[in-house]
Each structure stands twice: as structure tokens, then as C-alpha cells.
Design brief:
With 45 residues, the protein is an all-alpha fold. Helix content is 36%, strand content 0%.
């Protein structure tokens, strides 16, 4: 029998964003992506 290798290449998560009235939502989203990419040790695209 052949060896079988399985890789899962999908990740989904939902993170709440606390955005104040004087903050931009897109800036907060980019900030969250930067933090997660650093935590997961991956390049942010």
C-alpha cells in the first residue's frame, strides 16, 4: 500500500474589532492582520 500524506490548507477565524469613533476600520483590520501574521509566523499578503 502507498503512503498517504494529507495536508489541510484552509484556516478560518473571526476576530472582533473594537473600533472607536476616531479610528478607521480598515486601519484596525490591517493592524489585526499584522498581529496574526506575526503570531502565526507567516507573511501577510
Amino acid at each position: 500500500m502507498n503512503n498517504i500524506e494529507i495536508k489541510i490548507d484552509y484556516f478560518s477565524a473571526t476576530f472582533p474589532l473594537d473600533v472607536d469613533d476616531n479610528e478607521l476600520t480598515m486601519f484596525k483590520a490591517h493592524e489585526m492582520v499584522a498581529l496574526m501574521s506575526k503570531y502565526l509566523n507567516v507573511k501577510k499578503l
